[in-house]
Amino acid sequence: MTHGSGVDRRRWLQRALATIGGLALGACDRISQSDRVNSTLDYAEGWTKGVQRLLLGRNTLAPEYSVRDISTSFRANGTTNPDTEEYNRLAQASFADWRLVVGGLVEQPLELSLEELRRMASRTQITRHDCVEGWSCIAKWRGARLSAVLQQARLKPGARYLAFYCADSLELTLDGTGQYYETIDLVDAMHPQTILAYDMNDRPLAVRHGAPLRLRLERQLGYKMAKYLMRIEAIDSYRGIARGKGGYWEDRGYQWYAGI
Amino acid sequence: MPVADRALSRGRIAVYRHPLLVRLTHWLNALCLLVLLMSGLQILNAHPALYWGESSTFGSPFIAFGSGRSAAFPGWITLPGWQDLADGRRWHFFFAWLFVLNGLVYVIYALVSGRVRCVLAPTREQVRHIGSSLLEHLRLRFPHGQEARHYNVLQKLTYLAVLFGLLPLMALTGLTMSPGMDARVHFLTAVFGGRQSARTIHFLTAAALVSFFLVHIAAVLAAGPLTEMRSIVTGWFVIKPPKGGS
Predict the structure, then answer these.
(1) Residue A183: is its pLDDT beyond 80?
(2) Is A24 touching B (CB cutoff 8 A)?
(3) Number of separate domains in chain A
């Protein structure tokens, strides 16, 4: 009897060890491809957003730096030149014919030239740009306050997000889902440091950094800060845009809330 | 509160060393650290270079990993096993939450129950004999009999350094890398010397934890893997009578 149970136990142990070994080898890859696992992991984004919004409030400012902190070489992220026929035509005329279209759920749709944007309430800030890859660069940005643009356009009550449509595609697709876009909510849109930047380090924005206009959203990662802005739309939901996750990188698995 | 010893055959005594909560948080912590390490290396693969200061000096990194031709850290040590920064971040942040909550449960328990004071803090006697403990340890001679009832001084100091030094440092350097949290706790980022310094310290601390893990496992193997494993699984640590004596 004791003998029998000893053998049983040994066999059980062998089987358990073989199972654990097999699982460990294949498991990592299989687990990380499972939809249910991934949607469980996604809960963390909600916790992070909830806690950060609570701790940060609406107006806590991202750190600002002095002129001597400015990076000598600022790496350009994402597209470095949209290189479309339309964009090249606009760039050749120094964006004199370019207009920022503001529409969607607004009382007063706008078409703003660079000159008009430069005349609006502005903010200058020396801030750190954190790329999702892990590097950081510091630059001086000057731009129109997004809140001032929205004040002029007057949001309708149903507006909950802003969608930023860009001139560049990072991926060539037939259905247009490779076009760069981003969405932010109104808490971030109204933040004092949220600007539509036209100057970088006291010079008009270079093509590689998003000319003629890019979003600065200082409490989040670089991929939220859409470059080559063409159109802003006030919307009630981003589910209907492209693949429905609220941005080019969000559609490819990155967090919508990029404060971490 | 103390659970009584149990006498076993051949003069051995079973001591209740690890309460259930300590065992649970130990294993959950082990799982978290494994996932955080592997997903952390996945994230580091996206830009395998470290810097000091607030921003990156691309031309002169503090450390750069890999040749740039292929992933700096191979697939068998990253999560997921192929290059995917988005998935790596997803794993990292979920388990970071778990790690912090689990750590808080443990720390609160350890402080309130008196475990830190009674089990982890070295006694004055132990501190006085730290030199001889070190020599004994280097000769891989482990305490037997009544002496084995308590952690020795090196063990205590190592555990304290990991629990109240390395692990919180891991969480705090990670936190300051978040541009959102940085807006709230920039003084902490400044203490670390800037965001890129925090990222470098995050990596160095992870390396220190890996070293701790290797020594920890070596010590378990040297001291008796069965009895050590039994104590962290069941709570009961078996003390053998001193050889040739009593």
Answers:
(1) yes
(2) no
(3) 1
Q: What's the pLDDT score for residue A21?
A: 62
Residue B197 is inside which H or E element, if any? helix B195-223
Nearest-by-Cβ selection for B183 from A60, A75, A249: A60
Please give the pLDDT value at position B7: 93
Q: Which residue of A has its CA nearest to B88?
A: A32
Over pLDDT 90: what percentage of chain A? 81
Query: Under DSSP, is residue B93 helix (H, G, I), strand (E, B) or coil?
Result: helix
Whether A25 has a pLDDT exceeding 50, the answer reads yes
Q: Which residues does chain B have within 8 Å of residue A29's beta carbon, measured at their own beta carbons? A: 80-81
What confidence score (pLDDT) does residue B246 get?
42
First to last CA, chain A: 60
Q: Is the pLDDT of residue B12 over 60?
A: yes
Of A106, A95, A97, nearest to A214 (Cα)? A95
Is it the case that residue A194 has pLDDT exceeding 70? yes
Tokens 């009593």 appear where? B246
The pLDDT of residue B125 is above 80: yes
A126 reaches B (C-beta below 8 A): no
Range B6-37+93-239 has CATH code 3.40.50.10730 = no
Residues 6+ apart with CB under 8 A from A178: A169, A170, A171, A172, A248
In a domain, A70, yes or no: yes
Q: How many CB atoms lie within 10 A of CB B125?
A: 8
Residue A9 lies in a domain: no
Mean pLDDT (whole number) for B46-75:
95
CB-CB under 8 Å, A218 with B183? yes
Determine the residue type at A245. Answer: K
